[in-house]
Amino acid sequence: MRSERRERACDILRHGMSYQEILYSVDDRVATITLNRPDKLNAWTMTMSEEVRAAMFEAEADDEVRVIVFTGAGRGFCAGADMSMLGGIVEKGVSQQTQDELHSTEEPRRDDIRPDFNRKYTYFPSIRKPIIGAINGPAAGLGFILALYCDVRLASDTAKFNSAFARRGLIAEYGVAWLLPKIVGAGHALDILLSARSVEASEALRIGLVSRVYGSIAFPGEVKTYARELAHNVSPRSMAVIKQQLYDGHFQTLLEATAHAEKEMIQSLQSEDFKEGVAHFVEKRPAQFKGQ
User: Fold this and answer.
1) At what angle do helices 46-61 and 2-15 cross, to 10 degrees?
2) Where does the pLDDT of residue 285 fall: very low under 50, low under 70, confident under 90, or very high at 90 and above?
3) What is the pLDDT of residues 89-118, one digit of tens each?
4) 243: which of 90, 113, 158, 237 lies 20 to 30 Å off by Cα?
């Protein structure tokens, strides 16, 4: 079963098969991936999991795409796992298929991808383009995890965050116990995970869980403006390297991070984007970065 799902995800990427539970579009160098089960608050399914992964890889491979926006349709971002999935486990127990899904890994797409970023849901940091989480409403359970794995989180004032795990008899899933403290600190992380309480958008901004909060009416336009600012005015090469530096930095000493930065700096000084970065500034004109 798992191999069939992997093959379907590969088919979507190779042949452009239509998506069933997400929407995918590209406009003005920005790819938008939208969870599309609004009547279920975009509750997560295995189909959705496969399609999001395929869409992320599609956006990464598309030279016309420089930024990825990840959001939900309707009034929610993602309400977590579809209860029919959880109900089936309660009724039938933990099957071998469920165990296989929990241990899901893929073959690395590139040699520079750490094994840490090649497991279920941990692959977001390996995508060489910035992923903006546009949190338009409730993000609970798996939805909370997906929001955390985005590089930048922008929230509507209607957004709510809830781990939910402890209130379902579960634990901190899919690396969230490693990731959340790095975002908000150990104290806030323990509070959020142990209590499984809801965190409103205003508190999320105060503790650093999100970078910005906008009114619900202005939210879509503000997300678009932020994404286009990155897509048009920032070197895609620089964004890819900086993103990898930040995530790899979690596993490095300061000496290792500095040595790596020195190597990357030399390559940057020899790049076409560096030449363009200086030229457009001196000539006082819009940048024309090519990612080279």
Assistant:
1) 40
2) confident
3) 555 555 455 545 555 556 667 778 888 898
4) 158
Q: How far is CA 279 from CA 32, 230, 268, in A?
A: 31, 18, 15
CATH 1.10.10.10 fits 2-232, yes or no: no
pTM: 0.87
Query: Using one digit for the tens of pLDDT, what is the confidence trace for 10-25?
Result: 555 444 558 999 999 9
In this structure, of 88-97, 164-173, 208-217, the range with the lowest mean pLDDT score is 88-97
- 3-class DSSP assignment, residue 89: helix
8 Å CB contact between 160 and 99: no
What ranges do the domains of the chain cover?
A: 2-232, 234-283
Dihedral sign (CA 83, 50, 99, 175): negative
